[in-house]
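hey
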């Protein structure tokens, strides 16, 4: 059974969510008092019942007032009731539900008429440097409503929840999306920093001549970085189309914030590419050291075989149980045979070492 971290909202009982599939919800409204155009919207937690009432009272129509606040609902898609609730109350486009049935795709943000759809791959909450510790977050937003959903607890979305709960300024749903991307970029910076420390440790031990199965550690790290780069890098074509032709309800500041967030994201991913190259070089160095050790072992085995060849050959010949064995009746036959064996052994050793020196 999948559950959220201990700081989930009270009342979460089924798969980390309420019976409607809602994990948490926030309603954002302007502060009361004199007009404060630059003031941030205030976040108030809401239940699925309150969210249903708010959606019924604030339909997303072109003639609706612009100052009715925002709503952010985060759902657990592992709850079978989630999709039914969204179809009944959220009026989301069919493209969003089709994306839920897709596989694990690369990160993308695209426009569908006046709605933004996003698929964001993120690290799981209990991430522990394993390539499989990633999962997908599905996002749908218009000018008043932000819907997010996941099947496994994720880190970046929970960091955004904590920031909103603690009073992080929010202007719009697009601003929330940009903040989510920035939180994910910050998380990746921390991941790159931790991965760099691990690679530094491997490099130090490698330079000290202690391999100790570092090839497996480097291989796992490289697989992780390659997977994260493939999953987390936003698709440039869809993002370019969105930034060039945003929905009419998106303010210029929101478009710029989204562009800045994706650029920060790209910078972090470029750092990951550089780290991949460093891991690749370390793997090549480890492979070279292993090959060198193997060559030395093979050379020692070859020398032993060559040095043992004369005595084995002569012992085999003289050990035949037949007549006519030379030096059988000679008083110094043993010493003569030993001298011959030593002479052949010295010659064989000299030839073997000379070939090694010529090859080096």
């Amino acid at each position: 059974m999948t559950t959220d971290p201990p700081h989930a909202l009270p009342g979460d009982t089924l798969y980390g969510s309420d019976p409607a599939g809602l994990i948490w919800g926030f309603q954002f409204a302007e502060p009361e008092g004199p007009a404060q155009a630059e003031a941030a919207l205030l976040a108030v937690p809401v239940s699925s019942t309150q969210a249903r009432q708010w959606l019924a009272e604030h339909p997303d129509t072109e003639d609706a007032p612009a100052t009715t606040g925002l709503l952010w609902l985060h759902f657990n898609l592992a709850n079978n009731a989630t999709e039914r609730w969204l179809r009944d109350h959220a009026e989301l486009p069919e493209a969003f539900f089709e994306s839920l049935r897709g596989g694990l795709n690369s990160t993308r943000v695209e426009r569908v008429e006046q709605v933004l759809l996003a698929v964001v791959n993120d690290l799981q909450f209990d991430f522990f440097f394993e390539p499989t510790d990633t999962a997908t977050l599905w996002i749908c937003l218009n000018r008043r409503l932000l819907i997010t959903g996941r099947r496994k607890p994720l880190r970046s979305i929970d960091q955004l929840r904590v920031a909103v709960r603690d009073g992080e300024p929010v202007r719009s749903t697009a601003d929330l999306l940009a903040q989510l991307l920035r939180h994910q970029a910050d998380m990746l910076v921390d991941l790159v920093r931790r991965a760099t420390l691990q690679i530094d440790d491997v490099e130090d031990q490698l330079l000290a001549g202690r391999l100790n199965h570092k090839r497996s550690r480097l291989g796992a790290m490289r697989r992780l970085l390659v997977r994260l780069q493939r999953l987390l890098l936003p698709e440039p074509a869809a993002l370019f189309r969105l930034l060039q032709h945003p929905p009419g309800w998106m303010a210029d500041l929101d478009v710029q914030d989204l562009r800045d967030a994706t650029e920060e994201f790209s910078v972090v991913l470029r750092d990951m590419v550089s780290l991949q190259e460093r891991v690749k070089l370390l793997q090549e160095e480890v492979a070279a050291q292993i090959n060198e050790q193997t060559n030395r072992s093979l050379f020692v085995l070859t020398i032993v075989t060559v040095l043992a060849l004369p005595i084995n050959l002569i012992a085999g010949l003289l050990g035949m149980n037949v007549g006519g064995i030379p030096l059988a009746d000679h008083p110094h036959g043993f010493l003569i045979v030993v001298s011959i064996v030593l002479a052949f052994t010295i010659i064989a050793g000299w030839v073997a070492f000379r070939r090694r020196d010529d090859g080096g």
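The two ends are 62 Å apart (CA to CA). Strands lie at 22-29, 42-45, 70-76, 108-112, 115-123, 134-141, 145-150.
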